[in-house]
Amino acid sequence: MVKHLSSKVVLGLGACALSLTSQAQAVEILNVKQGEKQTKVSIGGYGKVDIRHVSGDVAYQDYWLANFPGGAAQDTSHTAFNVKESRVNLTVQHGDIRGFVEMDFYGGGGNEVVSNSSNPRLRHLYIQYKNWMAGQNWTTFMPLHALPESLDFGGPHAGEVFIRQTQLRYTHGAWQFAIENPETNGDGDVGSSVSGVGVTGAQADKDESLPDFIARYNHKADWGMVSVAGLLRQVDQGGLDKTATAFNIAARINTVGKDDLRFQVTSGDAGRYVAAGITPDIVTAEGKQTAEVESTVAYAIAYRHFWTPKLRSSVFYGSASTDVLERKRSHFGANLITSYNEYLDLGVEVGNFSVDDERMQSIDSNYLQFSAKLKF
Q1: What is the pTM of this model?
Q2: How would residue 22 be classed by pLDDT, with cut points 50, 70 and 90?
């Protein structure tokens, strides 16, 4: 229980819900002292409204992954409005212990006829204590510092490491070590829950006994940041028993003024970790009957330029290609974003997503997107 509230805290509780802290634009709703421990509670996130038009031969998506929606060329001219990227998060901090939970609204449900409802979807839920973090978070293999600023949700997924999952991570200085949830994609199991109690019965892979292992080194300097990460996992399903490895190198480099250059390169048996949707972990080549572990090479590069302190642009490109299935997907984009004030961003983005797989005619779609984003 809170045994004592200072007069300043009592007077400030009503006002603090309207004040913004400097950390991640969060709104501090509680800040009290319990003995020698300080307890802080804050909410954060943003509301984002997107208007998006897609035209070409690749079917519409709210944002581009490295997949092939529809699996065949489709004459497409589609305009959609949505707010599903919007998110809300809650942070609770008791001294050295910090808890964080965040949701967005890409959980499905609803329709465009009457309600346009969208179910919440869990993004993050983790606990931090000093150098330890446990819970669902971005994989330790993912270089957040290299992601470009984009209106398309996530930017060039085709060239990026992009995955959230439950893990246990230890950080020591510039080093990070993690064991993360294993999942083999391509053996017929989709890793999805079949009941309210989680993955059970036949849905629970009988062979996934070892977690994925990740080590990462981050170097920060006045000129920016560079990271190197390695991934080690066991693929022992679909008749295979192989140790799969991959690496990622990424950087954000300060250039002129507030401008920066960002890039990342991933190579190896990264599977579901990279180029979301481009390939399963286990594949069978055309004309063959023996399953193999797929290898992927992916890269993304972006440059952000500030025209004025409030007006900026990012140009980005991401691409990935696979070895066995010989798939290739790429995404290009360029935007113009202005900060109306410290809370509201307005922007426009144009770009192209293309599918250039072997043994098929190359197809692509262009997109135009307008977005308004209110941060809190």
Answers
A1: 0.89
A2: very low
